[in-house]
Model the fold of this input.
Amino acid sequence: SLGRLFGLHFWDREHVLEFLRTQERDEILYNTTAFIDLAKSYFTTRWVHFWPHVVGAVIWWNLYFLQLIPKIRNKFIAFHRYLGRILFVTAAAQVVTAIGLANTGHSSVVKIVSWIQAVAVSYCIFWAWHFARVKDITRHKYWVVRLVGYMQFVALQRFWIVFLVVSHKSGWHGLYGPVTESTSLEERNKLLLQQFDDSFILCALTGIYSTEWYMSSTYGWTRARSEVKKPSSKEVNGINGTKKIS
Done:
């Protein structure tokens, strides 16, 4: 989605709006107008929230993974710390702008999921920042990994909306009724917006479950005590932060 926004020159509102005015129907998405109208709102009434949200997304998605690479953390400690500060501020800004976008929309589902994510992400930011300040590296890493997991919601939403649309158009009508030539534009738009709402529910559940399962596996809660390998003295030093930042 970021690639498409750059292709449209998202920073140039007039250019994007001119393009959107030429799009009468979205033929791929059931020949509807719902997403076109939604996109127009981003570049008009919701621009004050949308623009910083996209800028924050660009910063986060292109840099956050550098914090998770052990060799970079251990070799470039100053870089790791400064980039961490930038990413903390970026994540906080993402929370604020996401709430702004949700509250200026019309979907109660999107509002609820956005507030749930905002609380989860804010909680992780607070504790990750706190333990970084007191140099408790083990707990800092724990909350950072959770933060990364909860920040995946939006990326997962893209996956689920594609899954729901493609599966429905491929003939699976277990969740939504079929679309025929007699289906009105209003009904088509309603269907697409329902799928959009459902994708938010699915992305929240997937993000929470995958984060919890990953944390359980990482900290050995999916293995018996006899199966857990004892860390070497070098690894212990790294975990405790005496020699390395882990």
Confidence is low (pLDDT under 50) at residues 242-246. The chain has one domain: 2-240. The CA atoms of residues 135 and 241 lie 8 Å apart. The two ends are 32 Å apart (CA to CA).
